[in-house]
Design brief:
Layout: H1 4-19, E1 28-42, E2 45-51, E3 66-70, H2 87-92, E4 102-106, E5 109-111, E6 116-122, H3 129-136, E7 142-148, E8 170-174, H4 179-192, E9 198-204, E10 219-225, H5 226-229, H6 235-244, E11 271-272, E12 282-288, H7 289-302, E13 310-316
Parallel strand pairs: 8-9, 8-12, 9-10, 12-13
Antiparallel strand pairs: 1-2, 1-7, 2-6, 3-4, 3-7, 5-6, 11-13
This protein binds flavin-adenine dinucleotide.
Length: 323
């Protein structure tokens, strides 16, 4: 017969075998959230405040932290993907009617202590599942979000705002979909790089979308409202970059101008991230893909800027849907 001590040790061993090592948290996880409030910011933009017990475990690492949001499926049901980590597989198994559409958004604010997360939605009509949901949303609506897990110890990624420590000049360019990220970047600049000159160009649909943003005294904030400027989407951003942006002199930045390859924005997302050698100049540019492509061509081919100083992201493509 075993002694109590050896029995305890045998049992402990058995238990360990049964339970195994606790699973390490993965970088991202699925969060259940419920719509708590809608705050109108301007004619084209509204803040959606989501809450839920899970949000206590959400994490954000930078002002442009991206998340995936699942919206109600075509049959009108709220998303109910499993939270055991197998949501991708489960989603693949669903038919078109019951599969929750997924779109990319930015965490505008995370208040983990009160279990709330804010996402600013562009209201562009009932032409896509995200904007359609936002247009008709009711308090209490349930969605699901994939976001970084606070319990994860490494860097989960999912953000491109990584300013060089010795940053000396920043150019920010974006349309209304990039406004939530740019607003956060400006706040970060005011806190952490208050003396660094920032030039920001933000194209929005309506003059009344030019909302108050927190900026450092070293920031030159330029709004580009399309209703006043009478241009198509992206034209004002390009024109502003060509005519008003303070760019470094080419000889200071021997860019890779030869043979700049185009990105097929009808098939893939334009996504190029800066890897600067120095902090002399950094640009963060996001918005409609064709507009960002034109700005990319101008900065690299026409002005010879170093690609490594530029973060260029197509946040959406006019006339197309990417799930
Ligand atoms: C990293 C990242 C972060 C983003 N963050 C935000 C954010 O914080 N807030 C935000 O509002 N958007 C954000 N976006 C953009 C958002 O993902 C797209 O606008 C998305 O297409 C909206 O989905 P939808 O279901 O409304 O439309 P979709 O089903 O994708 O598209 C339906 C139609 O609407 C058009 N369309 C899509 N977006 C717009 C638009 N903004 N204006 C006019 N027409 C449009 C499409 O071209 C298409 O013709 C982000 C995108 C990325 C990649």
């Amino acid at each position: 017969m075993s002694s109590p001590a050896s029995l305890a040790s045998a049992l402990g061993h058995g238990l360990r075998k049964l339970v195994g090592k606790p699973a390490k948290p993965s970088a991202y996880r699925l969060f259940d959230v419920q719509l708590k409030a809608i705050i109108a910011l301007s004619p084209s933009l509204a803040r959606y405040v989501f809450s839920g017990d899970d949000v206590a475990q959400m994490h954000t690492l930078a002002a442009d932290q991206r998340i995936k949001i699942f919206f109600p499926s075509a049959d009108g049901q709220p998303p109910r993907l499993p939270k055991d980590g197998a949501w991708q597989q489960a989603r693949r198994g669903l038919d078109a009617l019951s599969c929750p559409p997924m779109r990319t958004y930015t965490i505008r604010n995370l208040r983990r202590e009160v279990r709330e997360v804010d996402v600013d939605f562009v209201l562009h009509g009932v032409n896509g599942p995200a904007s359609a949901w936002a247009t008709r949303a009711c308090i209490g609506d349930r969605l699901q979000i994939v976001a970084p897990d606070f319990a994860f110890e490494g860097d989960p990624g999912g953000y491109e705002w990584r300013p060089p420590k010795d940053l000396r000049s920043l150019l920010l360019v974006g349309d209304e979909t990039a406004l939530p990220a740019i607003a956060g970047i400006l706040e970060h600049m005011a806190l952490a790089y208050a003396d660094v000159p920032v030039q920001a160009f933000i194209e929005v649909p309506d003059e009344q979308d030019c909302i108050d943003l927190t900026c450092s005294a070293a920031t030159e904030l330029n709004w580009l409202p399309r209703d006043l400027l009478n241009g198509d989407h992206g034209e004002a951003m390009l024109q502003a970059v060509c005519e008003l942006a303070r760019l470094p002199r080419v000889q200071d930045h021997p860019g890779c101008t030869a043979g700049l390859e185009d990105v097929d924005i009808e098939q893939q997302i334009l996504w190029e991230c800066a890897a600067p050698d120095s902090g002399e100049f950094h640009a963060w540019i996001a918005g409609e893909s064709a507009a960002v492509m034109r700005i990319r061509r101008y900065l690299i081919t026409d002005r010879g800027l170093d690609r490594k100083a530029l973060t260029l992201m197509g946040y959406w493509r006019a006339g197309r849907t990417f799930d």
